[in-house]
Amino acid sequence: MRDYISRKAREIPPSGIRRFFDLALTMEEVISLGVGEPDFSTPWNICEASIYSIEQGGTSYTPNRGIQPLREALSSWLRDHYSLSYDPDTEMIITTGVSEGLDIAIRAVVDPGDEVLVAEPCYVSYSPCVMLAGGIPVPVPCVERDNFRLNPDRLMEKVTPKTKALVINFPNNPTGAVMGREDLRGVADIVCDHDLVLISDEVYSELTYGGTHVAAATVGDLASRTVTLNGFSKAYAMTGWRIGYLCAPREICDAALKIHQYVMLCAPVMGQVAALEGIRRGEEEKDRMVREYRVRRNLFVEGLNRAGLKCHRPEGAFYAFPSVAATGLSDQEFAERLLLEEHVAVVPGSVFGCGGEGHVRCAYAVSRENLALALHRIENFVSRCTGAPAAVAPSRERV
Amino acid sequence: MDEKDLLLLQLLEENSRLTNEEMAVMAEMAPGDVAARILALESAGVIRSYTAVIDWEKAGNGEVSAIIELKVNPERDFGYDRIAERIARFRQVRSLRLITGAYDLQLVVTGRNMQEVARFVSEYIAPMDRIRETATHIVMKTYKENGRTFCEKEGGERIPYSF
Question: Domains in chain B and their CATH numbers?
Answer without folding.
Answer: 3-43 (1.10.10), 62-140 (3.30.70.920)
